[in-house]
Amino acid sequence: MGQPRVVVVGAGFGGLGAVHALREQGVTDVVVLERGDDVGGVWRDNTYPGAACDVPSPLYSWSWAVKPDWSRRYGTQPEILDYLRETAARDGLRDLVRFGTEVTAATYDEARRCWTVDAVGPDGPTTYEADLVVAALGQLSNPVVPALPGRFDGPSFHSAQWRHDLDLTGKRVAVVGTGASAIQFVPGIVDRVGALTVFQRSAPYIVPKPDQAYRPVHQRVLRRFPRLVAAERRAWFRVTELLTGAQGGHSRSGRLVLGGLRLAWRAQLRRQVPDAGLRRRLVPDDPIGCKRVLFSNDWYPALARPHVEVVPEAVTGLEPTGVRTADGRLHEVDVVVWGTGFAATSFLEPLTVTGVGGRDLHAAWADGARAHLGLSVPGFPNLFCIYGPNTNLGGSSIVNMLEAQASYVAQVARRIADGDARVVGVRPERYDAWDREMQDRLRESVFAGCDSWYVDGTRITTNWPGLVAEYQARLASVDWDDLEEVS
């Protein structure tokens, strides 16, 4: 059929990486629809104080766009965003992006054997036709603010929508949530605020972050000897695979890794929090590994400050002057910051996706999202979900997973371009077999004891149960027996 028309939704690591892989396969009729005003995805949107990555920079980057001059081991939000911008411009990816264009629906046209993609852009509603759709919305694109009774009259905002126009100096600030974002922005604002109340539903495990600034000599050496950049990347890959493997099963090595992390957590907690009562409130209820282990050197010292209070109670309602907790107490504050994370299990929302026979994708996922290889669903031909169900990680770089997915999708697009197929979908029996494998393996993993990973108490929809290397190997070459031509 010649060049397939490809629509990519999203211009973050996943979407831009998919475009690069498509072009490597000679597929060039590509348009990227991005609702924001720049590339970058979560790294464009999350600008809160202290925003940074918890994966070493040499690994949290594309293998085809290595950067020898990172300023520090763990990249900060501004530097990661600059990396995405510069790479997109240098690789010609930015030219394919239509900014300010939010996709609202994708509908498969059976008669014409193509997709119609509805979007609202700067000039109003627009419809695109595509032979292949790549949905790269990510798992961390839609912030969640809990629907609580009552109303707070002061300023409130989610950490992913930080109010830089609001001066927090001397203010009484409530922070709801103690996840990956909160452990970064709380230390970033603690010296400015007058009082800080942190509402903690469940304490996280916090271990030391082996961060450091890179000296100019380090950067010069890496620029001069590119093989060292690759060696550094491989070394960090092996290190992070240890944590990924520890969460994936109950092997002796996995238990040793988790045991070592628990010792590091306990030592840091005891060293940085002298008050025994506060230490008790900061002990997690879940086994280590249930949630992503978090890295920070300044979270516990921030909580130990005299003007900071940790409240281990759920927030149950809002009042004009503050927030009320499950114990009935009203906490009066001037500002509320929601560090309550993202709708990580609501894949592809808020898009309406309609496949063969008018099948609604979200209805098909009513009991939890699932996709073959995390990418495709029967009845939705030529539709691929980057960073889809069961592809998230607990310890390594998601960029490696995204690259594997992008390569797989690009191989399918190449086959379409060559005329060997026009419309392909995953065979239902392969889809079911993959899902059974995922759930069986996950029930044997650390996540099995973690209620927070389940949908309706039955399915784990987010995490991958194995090593990154296994996933890369399984997607390296398309098994065409998994797919069938859709008439």
Structure, described:
With 487 residues, this protein is α/β, with parallel strands linked by helices. It has 2 domains: 6-39 and 93-142 and 343-485, FAD/NAD(P)-binding domain, CATH 3.50.50.60; 156-210 and 235-338, FAD/NAD(P)-binding domain, CATH 3.50.50.60. It has 13 helices and 23 strands. The protein has a 5-stranded parallel sheet, with helices on one face.
Helicity level: 25-40%
| Chain oligomer state | single chain
CATH architecture of the largest domain: 3-Layer(bba) Sandwich
- Whole-Å distance between the termini? 15 Å
CATH class of the largest domain reads Alpha Beta
- The tally of strands reads 23
Residues in β-strands, percent: 15-25%
Q: Kindly report the CATH topology of the largest domain.
A: FAD/NAD(P)-binding domain
Overall average residue pLDDT: 94
Shape: globular
The radius of gyration is 23 Å
Numbering strands along the chain, what is their spatial order in the largest sheet? 3-2-1-7-19
Tally of DSSP helical segments: 13
Q: Could you name the CATH homologous superfamily of the largest domain?
A: FAD/NAD(P)-binding domain
Major pleated sheet: 5 strands, parallel
**Global structural class:** alpha/beta
Low-confidence stretches: none
* Total of domains: 2
Task: Summarize it.
The chain is of the alpha/beta class and 487 residues long.
Chain-wise SSE layout:
Layout: E1 6-9, H1 13-24, E2 30-33, H2 42-45, H3 77-90, E3 97-98, E4 102-109, E5 114-121, E6 124-130, E7 132-135, E8 156-158, E9 172-176, H4 182-189, E10 195-199, E11 206-207, H5 216-224, H6 226-248, H7 252-272, H8 276-281, E12 294-295, H9 299-303, E13 308-311, E14 315-319, E15 322-325, E16 330-332, E17 335-338, E18 352-354, H10 361-364, E19 383-385, H11 398-417, E20 424-426, H12 428-443, E21 454-455, E22 459-460, H13 468-475, E23 483-485
